[in-house]
Design goal:
heterodimer, A: alpha+beta, Uridine Diphospho-n-acetylenolpyruvylglucosamine Reductase, domain 2, Uridine Diphospho-n-acetylenolpyruvylglucosamine Reductase, domain 3, Enolase-like, domain 1, 5-stranded antiparallel beta sheet, 4-stranded antiparallel beta sheet, B: Aldehyde Oxidoreductase, domain 4, 7-stranded mixed beta sheet
């Protein structure tokens, strides 16, 4: 309940925030929506000496439509995405993912950037970021750089962001016509994080053949990962039930499945396959297949 | 029946306490703010079992704002008492702070007092405790095995008690001649209570007078005062006042005297300053008394007609590392005597081993013993139905105790004599509301399509308002089981009611006011209900075991009888009429046959205080105190039906439909009873599907946060269909039975039976609770192989 003492900073620009970060280094933590960090601080599992609150930094919230992408400010709340007309029109799966995170109170505080930067192994967003091929925009002392989602989720609560960088935006490509995507999860009975969550996106040509597939699994392992075996098995095929089932069988390949109270490795791997099948089937349906 | 005319009894009146709760104006313990307040934080054991080598508080004492650190023997108070003794019981010493050894994760080792909560917490982090870890044991049955780690040298095999009820010889004979024997091993898993308001206390010692005031989240402030003053602090009760203000739920967990309030009280006396402690949620998980945790082997004997001839039960009850206040009572007298359920069972024999383990103490949790007995019976009945190839409803009907509603009790072979009961109509109504026959047809059709629907039925008996005191005393109770009430009429006619019952969600401020206003014929607004303060109310026993209406409410009726008797005398005197010639109606006494000659309640009340014209020799004033000791428990009953659908591919269970028909006797406020039933069902479904206090083999609590321990949530529950039958209790003047726990008792087996029924095509006959997706998937996968 009572965190250890810390200094609180509330910069109003990315530049000022970066200056603070450069000065305070590892002793500082960036605060976004606070729905992961603050509970950890209250449990004293995290005891940063300084908290740099990004909520007053201008320009970090909102969804911008680019030609073939949505650029989502890192401080955009789950609720803002859930209710965004742009998201619903261009990438409805983003609204779908946002809408099943926590509860309305959490969704009105928690942010996309916070979730992606925290990289909780059971968070929902990482699966969507990986499946859709998102890019993380970071700003550091030397300016901006972009990191592909594939390179972003490095390990358990570890990302490719450098200590002196701030994640400022997430660019999610809009998939072409004939695409569909879906996210399905088996929620933890207590936390509602994903015991297993699978995001699947497919593009079908006019013959119903899959020309591109993005599938990613969260929850089961120490980090969210692309299910490349599944993607390969989908691509180039007409996605009938049998093809989907066969592809889904590879969903747990490459996932370092962790056993815990919710399930053995065997059970969770099974759930990866089941939810891959369900998510792909739904994605295909939405793609018009 | 003493009820006169009922305008309010039976009406769904909105709870008077709710406006302050829902607008955030409740006054809870943590809202108490006193000048000079200090704050406590506890250092707790990270080990399940370890020797304490050294407690080094030097660094903690240097933390800014830390006032004091105390550990172990520093705290000069008696140990925490156990309030129920069984024959041959071995009671382990339970120091307020661990001495020499720690025996469960979360056991308090030291207290740090700070000027702020932050300072106290910083100080607690700076206390260095050196431990020598010892092997521990978390499982009640493993603790009994040869070579198991020993918690106390003086308690061999960790066996705190061995207790039996029933008759072994006749039960053995029943099994020897049985046509069918059904065996059912089962685990009733450990649950963690989780009231929405965590436990808290504020102790304020006044050095000038030597008075100690303790605000504490207590279901029974006088029990807290008695046990703490007499056994722990060794001070006269006159020097201690216990106030339990608004309390946000208890479910049993706030009955007991805990380490924290004892140490905080002692610290306030030592420092001469008020000390506050409010549990963090993790502390609640670790140190609030847990519930259930039985490992049982049950066997039921049947004759050729499917009638039960005998029941044999062997239970290892995990009591935790120490005996919580009423721990021995729960798996003994609140368990064994319930094993006849609503069934005629000629022979029952039950053995219970009370085991100490390296886990948090276990005590009463909503239902307390009765859910364990009911789950055992109802699960076994379903298994028997499967084995006997009978519909589970039909098997239950064949074995029901025939109706007894004329005041003649039904004597079971396990001590209890039920007050009144008529079990078939409740079941019939529940099946009707649930559409049972149609549901069975739907189930068959769904199975043909590869969908797995299950229907579960549970009937149940509940025992409320444990009584009478003399019998309880002979069975080991350290307290009486009566209740007190006091009704004080004010000169202008309004009434203050002081009850020994305690409301921490039950709505007494409404229901008791309904009863009193009805009996006096005055508006509810004229009635104020006071509870929870030992300086205001007469000595009372508090609220547990669904006793407030039947015992606390009856105490108030006794007071009202005295008040009305005196009022009648005054009215008769003023009207110059004979007492027997008066009618009391609509808040006025009138002369029979001359309704215009009357004295209103307010006039009589005023005259009682003016005393200008009252009968000669009568004392002025109008108030009464009563102590009501019931002659027996009351025995609510009912039938619940659950319909579930199981996703055989993932093992996920969806509760589709839930029907509850309860008979809680007469109902004072149906909306409040519905609320209790609804909440109870949610809690019982929680046990069936989600909740589990899991200790690893090393004694670490693996489900110690809300992120890990799955409480029931609204999205996992359907809208319930509820109804009631009404069989008044003949043993109390209100005819009420008790409604606080029925939902919890009946819903766990109803849902469990439904899930197992859904899995029948896979040949699954039993799975232990909670019925998690993984367990179900494993069972289905095994069947498919």
């Amino acid at each position: 309940m009572y965190p250890a003492a810390f200094e609180y900073h509330a910069p109003t620009s990315v530049k000022d925030a970066l200056k603070l970060l450069a000065k305070l280094k590892d002793d500082a933590k960036l605060l976004a929506g606070g729905h992961s960090l603050v509970p950890m601080m209250k449990l004293r599992l995290a005891q940063p000496g300084h908290l740099i609150d990004l909520r007053k930094v201008k320009g970090l919230s909102g969804i911008k439509e680019e030609k073939a992408a949505l650029v989502i400010g890192a401080m955009t709340t789950h609720w803002a995405i859930e209710s965004s007309k742009a998201a619903k029109a261009k990438l409805p799966v983003l609204a779908e993912v946002a809408g099943i995170i926590g509860d309305p109170a959490v969704r009105n505080k928690g942010t996309l950037g916070g979730s992606v930067a925290h990289a909780d192994p059971a968070a929902d967003w990482p699966a969507a970021m990986l499946a859709l091929g998102a890019e993380m925009v970071c700003e550091g002392p030397k300016g901006k750089r972009t990191v592909k989602a594939d390179d972003w989720f490095v390990g358990l609560m570890t990302t490719a962001a450098k200590g002196n960088e701030i994640l400022t935006a997430i660019r999610v490509p809009v998939w072409p016509a004939g695409s569909g995507a879906a996210y399905m999860k088996f929620p933890h009975p207590a936390s509602r994080f994903a015991v297993v969550g699978v995001c699947a996106a497919v593009t079908l040509d006019k013959q119903g053949v899959c020309t591109r597939a993005g599938v990613a699994v969260t929850g089961a392992g120490t980090r969210a990962v692309r299910a490349r075996g599944v993607e390969a098995a989908l691509t180039g095929k007409k996605l009938d039930a049998a093809a989907i089932e066969a592809a889904a069988q590879k969903a747990a390949d490459g996932v370092d499945v962790q056993a815990d109270l919710q399930g053995s490795v065997e059970y969770k791997a099974h759930l990866c396959r089941v939810f891959a099948r369900r998510a792909i089937s739904e994605a295909v349906k939405r793609a018009g297949g | 029946m003493a009820v006169t005319e009922e305008r309010l009894f039976g009406k769904a009146i909105k709870r008077r306490e709710d406006p302050r709760f829902i607008t955030g104006r409740g006054q809870y313990v943590d809202d108490v703010k006193l000048p000079g307040m200090t704050y406590a934080a506890f250092v707790r054991s990270p080990h399940a079992h370890a020797r304490i080598k050294k407690v080094d508080a030097a660094a903690a004492r240097k933390v800014a704002g830390v006032l004091a650190v105390y550990a172990g023997e520093d705290v000069q108070v008696g140990g925490l008492p156990c309030g129920w003794m069984l024959p041959g019981i071995k009671v382990p010493a339970r120091p307020a702070l661990a001495q020499g050894k720690v025996r469960y994760v979360g056991e308090p080792v030291a207290i740090v007092i700070g000027e702020t909560p932050f300072a106290a917490k910083d100080g607690a982090e700076a206390v260095r405790v050196q431990y020598e870890a010892l092997p521990g044991v978390a499982d009640g049955k493993k603790a009994h095995a040869p070579g198991a780690p020993q918690l106390f040298d003086e308690i061999p095999k960790n066996q705190c008690f061995y207790w039996t009820i029933g008759d072994k010889a006749s039960t053995d004979a029943a099994f020897a001649s049985a046509a069918t024997v059904v065996t059912q091993p089962l685990v009733n898993q450990r649950l963690i209570p989780n009231a929405i308001e965590p436990r808290a206390c504020v102790a304020s010692y006044a050095p000038g007078t030597g008075d100690l005031t303790l605000w504490v989240t207590s279901q029974n402030p006088h029990v807290h005062r008695l046990l703490m003053a007499a056994f722990v602090l060794a001070i006269p009760e006159t020097k201690m006042r216990v106030i339990s203000p608004d309390v946000g739920g208890g479910f049993g967990s706030k009955i007991f005297v805990y380490n924290e309030e004892v140490v905080v009280s002692w610290a306030s006396r030592t420092l001469g300053r008020p000390v506050k402690w409010t549990a963090e949620r993790r502390e609640s998980f670790l140190n609030d008394a847990h519930g259930r945790d039985h490992v049982t082997e049950a066997a039921m004997a049947f004759d050729r007609e499917g009638k039960i001839t005998g029941l044999r039960v062997k239970t290892h009850a995990n009591l935790g590392a120490y005996l919580s206040t009423f721990a021995p009572l729960i798996p003994s007298y609140l368990y064994g005597p319930l094993l006849s359920g609503v069934y005629k069972i000629p022979a029952i024999f039950c053995e219970v081993w009370g085991m100490l383990t390296n886990t948090a103490p276990v005590d009463a949790y909503r239902g307390a013993g009765r859910p364990e007995a009911t789950y055992l019976l109802e699960r076994t009945m379903d298994r028997a139905a499967r084995q006997l190839r009978l519909d589970p409803v039909e098997l239950r009907r064949r074995n029901f105790i025939p109706p007894f509603t004329d005041g003649t009790p039904y004597q079971t072979p396990v001590a209890f004599a039920y007050d009144s009961g008529d079990y078939a109509p409740a079941l019939r109504r529940a099946l009707e509301l649930a559409g049972y026959e149609q549901a069975r047809r739907d189930q068959a059709a769904a199975r043909a399509k590869g969908r797995y629907i299950g229907i579960g039925v549970s009937t149940y008996i509940e025992a409320c308002g444990p009584a009478p005191s003399a019998v309880a005393g002979s069975l080991g109770a350290g307290a009486g089981l009566w209740e007190s009430g006091q009704v004080r009429v004010h000169p202008a006619g309004s009434v203050t009611v002081y009850t020994g019952s305690h409301s921490h969600g039950q709505g007494h401020e409404t229901t008791f006011a309904q009863v009193v206003a009805d009996q006096l014929g005055i508006p509810m607004e004229q009635v104020e209900v006071v509870h929870g303060d030992t300086a205001q109310i007469p000595f009372g026993m508090g609220t547990y075991g669904s006793r407030s209406a039947c015992v606390g409410g009856s105490a108030l009726v006794k007071c009202l009888d005295k008040i009305k008797e005196k009022g009648r005398k005054i009215a008769a005197h003023l009207l110059e009429a004979g007492e027997q010639d008066l009618d009391f109606k609509d808040g006025a006494w009138s002369v029979k046959g001359s309704p215009d000659r009357k004295k209103a309640w307010g006039e009589v009340a005023l005259m009682a205080y003016l005393a200008h014209n009252i009968p000669q020799g009568m004392e002025p004033g109008l108030e009464a105190t009563s102590f009501y000791d019931p002659v027996n428990f009351t025995f609510p009953f009912g039938a619940h039906v659950a319909v579930v659908e199981v996703d055989a591919e993932t093992g996920a269970v969806k509760l589709v439909k839930y029907t509850a028909v309860d008979d809680v006797g007469r109902v004072i406020n149906p909306m409040i009873v519905d609320g209790m039933v609804h909440g109870g069902i949610a809690q019982g479904v929680g046990q069936a599907l989600w909740e589990h206090g899991v200790y690893g083999d090393d004694g670490q609590l693996l489900s110690a946060t809300m992120m890990d321990y799955a409480m029931p949530k609204a999205d996992g529950l359907p809208s319930y269909t509820t109804d009631r039958t009404v069989t008044p209790s003949p043993i109390n003047p209100l005819g009420v039975k008790g409604a606080g726990e029925t939902g919890t008792i009946a819903s766990t087996p109803a849902v469990a039976n439904a899930v197992i029924d859904a899995l029948a095509p896979f040949g699954v006959t039993h799975l232990d609770l909670p019925l998690t997706p993984q367990k179900i998937w494993k069972a289905v996968a095994a069947a498919k192989r």
